[in-house]
Amino acid sequence: MNEQDYQKIIENIEKEKKYELNNSKLYRIKKDKRLLVIRRYEFEGLLYMMHNYHELLAHFGINTTYEKIIEKYYWKGMRKDIEIYIKFCDRCQRRGKPIGRNELHPIEVKEPFYQIGIDFVELLKVTKRGNKYIIVAMDYFTKYPEAKAVKKDNAKTVADFIYEDIICRHELPQKIISDRGSHFKNKMIEELIKKFNIKHKFSTSYYPQTNGLVKRFNKTLYPVSHRIMMSIILLIFGI
Ligand SMILES: [Zn+2]
């Protein structure tokens, strides 16, 4: 939705019957559903997440992507935007047609938050709030990424994130997988892990697929432009 329309709705929100403001986010009311209104600068990031990254939808065709997106989101002209985005998708063009799901991950996990992979993504630019990294934890079962923009990539950041954003907000994971970086392999993390009786496995360069999930997530973030990256962060991570 363009900025002018968006602001107009916000200004008249009390009179609007089709829209609702919740937690400073605008929703369109459609029957019994509340659809998040996507602003102009957000839709590229959303489409990137839904079409290029999303585990089940990656590089699906226009109709499937559209059907999935209208379940949760709304903006004017969304069908057309989705169509154009997919028609110009590099990978879809090279393959001739949209493809199905990604290859399955070799590690089998049976329940949500049983096993999580954790890693840092370095941002291309420091954000207004002084954040330089995103710490990402990916659940191996649901592929749900929990992420937070942070200032430092040290042990304290990792410990706080595991405790506040994983243990307190989700389940207590049984296994955490990370690389051997000093922010993951240290006394502070060791104590936290022991306290909650979690197993910590280190992926090594000999077996890079062990932590393949987070790495793949990161790889999909790295090559995108700064603009898309920022809109993903704004939209998905709400910062
Ligand atoms: Zn594609």
Write the layout of secondary structure elements.
Blueprint: H1 3-11, E1 19-22, E2 25-30, E3 33-37, H2 43-53, H3 62-69, E4 73-74, H4 78-87, H5 90-95, E5 115-122, E6 133-139, E7 145-150, H6 155-167, E8 175-178, H7 187-195, E9 199-202, H8 212-221, H9 226-236
Parallel strand pairs: 3-4, 5-8, 8-9
Antiparallel strand pairs: 1-2, 2-3, 5-6, 6-7
The protein binds zinc ion.
Zinc ion binds next to α5.
Structural features, described:
With 239 residues, the chain is of the alpha/beta class. It folds into 2 domains: 3-95, Endonuclease III, domain 1 (Orthogonal Bundle); 115-236, 2-Layer Sandwich (Nucleotidyltransferase, domain 5), CATH 3.30.420.10. Helices cover 36% and strands 19% of the residues. It contains 9 helices and 9 strands. It has helices spanning 3-11, 43-53, 62-69, 78-87, 90-95, 155-167, 187-195, 212-221, 226-236, and strands spanning 19-22, 25-30, 33-37, 73-74, 115-122, 133-139, 145-150, 175-178, 199-202. The protein has a 5-stranded mixed beta sheet, with helices on both faces. Strands 1-2-3-4 form a 4-stranded mixed beta sheet, with no helix packed on it. Helix 7 (187-195) links the parallel strand 8 and strand 9. Helix 2 crosses helix 9. The two termini are 20 Å apart. Residues 98-107, 205-210 and 219-226 have low confidence and may be disordered. Zinc ion binds next to helix 5.
